Amino acid sequence: MPEEAPMTPNSPQDFDESNTALLPQEEVVGHEATHDAAEYSDRERFLQELSRGDVSSLKKIKNGLPFPDSFLQSPEVQEAAQNGFIQFVEWGFTDFALELRDAIPLPDSFLRSPEVQEAAQKGFADQINRRDIPDALRLRDTFSLPEQFVQEVAQKGFADLISRGYTSDALKLRDTFSLSVELLQSPEVQLSTKKEFISLMYSSTLDSALKFRDAVPLPKSFLHSPEVQEAAQERFLQEINRGDLDLAITFRDTFSLPDQFVQEVAQKRFADLVVLGGINSALKLHNIIPLPESFLNSPEVQVAAQKRFTILVAQKEIDSALKLHNIIPLPDQFVQEVAQKNFIDFIAQKEIDSAIKLNETFSLP
Question: Which residues of 21-41 are buried (b: 16+ CB within 10 A; e: fewer)?
Fold first, then answer.
């Protein structure tokens, strides 16, 4: 009977305890060494991920690690877990830190250690700076942060958020941590709030500035200070030039702007509108901020008004010309001369309707 040929493995699945005996001894040793090296590499990778606070290490734990229990209970894993725990806490990832603690039990002595407290305090300060108040609260409550430390960080954060323009976040921080009235009146906070109020005066809506003023009490002396007056006057000027007269008047009344300043701005804008032909806007401005007759009869205004009146009549904008005449009383002789000249021109141009309207409007002789 012929001898049977020796069996040889033909797939990776054939390498098990039953068939390694069929391999030459040196191949068995090589296979085991490769397997051990791969397992060592996986362990090292896991330890590195765990130590640096890599979330993927938590996923691996959750999915089940292919390592013996002795490895998970080893000093190496405990050290890596503590390092990772501290990283999570410093970053404010409280949920990840607790998940790690539950997966790899950490000793109470470590959880109450100065290192963990320091990490929790750093994470708390960072979350306040990032305006993430819920995560900051989670850190405070989980690690029982000292109240004095919490108040100091919250107070500093309040002033910082105000100075950066995050008013709503600052107010939320104030309410969440019950910051004291004394804090709001401290020199540091007052400096920040004053700067932010001035900034809102220049760049935001008046409503936003007033809400800020009411939320963060400012001394009355500051509200009447040269800095606030300057900002209010600048906004008044801007709104007058933009044509938002109602807002301009609100600035005037809210900050008690001087009458002389208000008149100077209104008169300049009125004269500009007359020159530019904005008769309706000029009339509205005059109605809201009455201008004195001495100004309306001044040579500067009269010259601009007469020039604009002449243009309006020639362009057959007779209603606008009449409005201008009603706002700024023009000499009757001048009005008649302009009207009569254009009446003749209209007739020559066969603009009969315009000629009739001009005659009826200015009662030509």
Answer: eebeeeeeeeeeeeeeeeeee
Spatial CB neighbours of 99, under 8 Å, sequence gap ≥ 6? 58
Q: Which two tokens stand for residue 264?
A: 């100077």
CB 154 within 8 A of CB 179: yes
Torsion of CA 29, 32, 33, 36, to 10 degrees: -160
pLDDT single digits (tens) 306-358: 999 999 999 999 999 998 898 889 999 999 999 999 999 999 999 999 989 98
For every residue of 287-324, DSSP letters joined together read HHSPPPHHHHTSHHHHHHHHHHHHHHHHTT-HHHHHHH
Q: State the DSSP H helix or E strand holding residue 1, giving kind and residue range, or none if neither.
A: none
Residue pLDDT, tens place only, 264-292: 999 999 999 988 888 889 989 999 999 99
Rounded Cα distance between 113 and 115, Å, is 5
d(CA 345, CA 352): 10
Is the overall model pTM greater than 0.85, yes or no? no
The whole-angstrom separation of Cα 121 and Cα 126 is: 9
Q: Are 175 and 166 in contact (CB under 8 A)?
A: no
